[in-house]
Amino acid sequence: MKFLSMSKWFMVVLCMSGVLLQYGCAFKDIDKRLFVSAIGIDPAENVENGYKVTLKVALPFGAIKDSERPSFAYLSREGQSIGEAIRMLETHVDKVLELGHMKTIIVHEKLLRDDMQSFMDYFIRRGDIQLIAYVAGARPSAETILKVEPNTEAPASVALINFFGATANDSPYVVTTYLFQLRRDILADGINPVLPLIETNAGGDELIVNNSVVVDGREDPAVLSTIETKYFNSLLKDSTGFTYLVKEGSLKLLLNFSQSKMTYQFVPSKGSGAPRAIDMHIVMKGTIGEANKDLSIAKLDDYNSLASKDVKQRVMHFLTKMQEENLDPFGFGLRYRATRLHTEDIFTTWQKAYPDIEFKVTVDVKLQGTGSIE
Amino acid sequence: MSRFVYFLLISNMIANLIAASPRIFFAKSEEGAIITMIIALFFGVFMNWALITSFKAFPGKSLPQILSLYLSKWITIPVLIILGVIWYVSGLQTLITYIDILLRFLTPEMSVYLVIAMFIPVITFGIIMQSRNILFTLELVFVLAVPAAAYYVVKLYFAEQVSWDHVAIAMTFIDNPPDYTVFSTTTYLFAGTFDIIIFNSLLKKKMTFGIKQALIVFILGAFALFTTYFIPIGVLGFDQVESTLYPWILTSDSIRMKFGVIERVIFIFLLLFLAIAFLNITIHWHVACKLFQSAFDIEQLKIKWREKISLVIMVVVFWSIAIYTTLKVTEYDLFLFSRYYFNFIPIVMTALISLMLVVNRRAKS
């Protein structure tokens, strides 16, 4: 019995001595760290094929009351690779750069090409960078966008983060793309990732996010216009807050859609298994938000067909434009692969078929009311 | 079946979710992973049935006790030693994986020695505990950790981050011919029940394994397997999923809970699964320890404190090998060794069941 109690004591002492080894925050105190809130990547000016990395570092302050505006420091450095540039930036500051709270990666518009994979690699490989960080394109450059400090930015917050992820800004014009999602879509056959494009105004005190970029191998990435971004978001991601203006003669209607749902099927051509057409069905539900004339609730059906016709036209335009550019932001190719039993040439069949595929779109707008007045 | 048997089974399934098995599945994702998993699912349930049924005649007796009653020493001792090694390696494999994960994701700046040093006291204490207390610990951790772990896993199914198109693409590979490595890895998911070769000495009630129990084990297995395989594919994409080292860590890092206590699910996830993995290592090493003890027949030795001395020797040997391999093994080695190890499992299981068949027959006559 004596031995047993001794071994227990030994254990207790061992466990307690383990506590002595812990001195918080993985051996570096919080005041010895600098928290990077965003990273910007631009093409290098002086290094060939290199990158210019800009870090937006949040500076600590005593109390929120004391500080009227958030304070940031900006660090820039050019290097052959992202990792190298960040390593060198560590020598520019007196503290440890902490990337675990980094939530936004901003990439220069011109870098959104296929070689993205090579520098995105760094972010994935590092264990401490969040895979739920947002990735966005920047115009005119990532550095300019990072240095914008909007007037609406509150102390102890970063405006760039609030745009995405539907925690604060919920607009259908804002596309959200996470780092893991970008990696998944770049590596997958049959889908092109879409990134939001961040711009700024002439005064440099506002961030504007309402366009998006389709990433592909080409030199000049295709930019989706504001309207196309809205359609992309609401068709694929069911964003709410979709508004739509119908004009018919002198009648002007603003429709608010709260739900939109897209389903589609492939129509195989006779003989070969290649798809001939995509049969798409879109259902949208909403109310009338604004009108320049008196509306009658009995005439909802008329408004429905009016809106359907118009939405259909826009969707068709968007789809054919993407088809002409041979882009696939909706992931039709992926769905095609997912709905057929696997064969060796399934994806080449799709690639051959996609440029000539026919879109048959039916839009079903279901207005549920005219708002609170007739 | 006693509830503890379910606990053992589930703890093994959960610990494997993070360890080496998903990677093996993904490496074979275009070479018949799915059809093999379906076959192995039935095989696993069958093995569970065979094991429980073969132990039915011996309530309250562990495997070493049963073997020494009915078989000669020449068979008993090698069998126990082989089983001990198998169980030891099973714990070791989980241990190395988790140390690696801790170093990479939780505390990248910490030294590897310190991380090992944190494991040593807790697991050592687990090994030298009485079997009964281990089962109680198991129950306690289950009450604390599994509801939360289950919540997060179920939440994954409803996360918008999971792309079901990728899952569907993975399913289109259903018509490929089966593969043995996937088969053995899947079978290993069901190896938790085999811990009763030691813990049966505490399960005094006669156990039955009928349709109901088979259905429960089948559903548990199918759910664990589906989650292990398809959710990472849905999050990380099908085309390159085999290139990720720890698919489940990346998967949990990709999941965002907008209004959760912590937005990044990975930290909660890692801690929960770490608790269960700790337990799993403890159980396996405890079983290994007991097997070795009975193989060397320490009860018969005429030395003072023989039990304690044997335990001390065992713990020292266990940890020496563990520390040495943890420091030496690279990620690729680990993957390779795990594959070899898993390939053994169905053979060992079948051999054990056939041995029990012989013992059962002798016990009847």
UniProtKB/TrEMBL annotation, chain A:
Keywords: Germination, Lipoprotein, Membrane, Palmitate, Signal. It is a lipid-anchor. It holds the Pfam family Spore_GerAC_N. Residues 28-199 form the Spore germination protein N-terminal domain. Its main location: membrane. Residues 224-371 form the Spore germination GerAC-like C-terminal domain. Gene3D superfamilies: Nutrient germinant receptor protein C, domain 3 (3.30.300.210). It is found in: Membrane. The keyword Transmembrane helix does not apply. InterPro entries: GerAC_N, Spore_GerAC-like, Spore_GerAC-like_C, Spore_GerAC_C_sf. Belongs to the GerABKC lipoprotein family. This is Uncharacterized protein.
UniProtKB/TrEMBL annotation, chain B:
It is a multi-pass membrane protein. InterPro entries: Spore_GerAB. Signal peptide: none annotated. The keyword Disulfide bond does not apply. The chain crosses the membrane at residues 35-55, 67-90, 110-128, 135-154, 180-203, 215-238, 265-288, 309-327, 339-359. It is found in: Membrane. The keyword Transmembrane helix applies. Keywords: Germination, Membrane, Transmembrane, Transmembrane helix, Transport. Belongs to the amino acid-polyamine-organocation (APC) superfamily. Spore germination protein (SGP) (TC 2.A.3.9) family. This is MFS transporter permease. It comes from Sporosarcina ureae. The lineage of its organism: Bacteria, Bacillati, Bacillota, Bacilli, Bacillales.
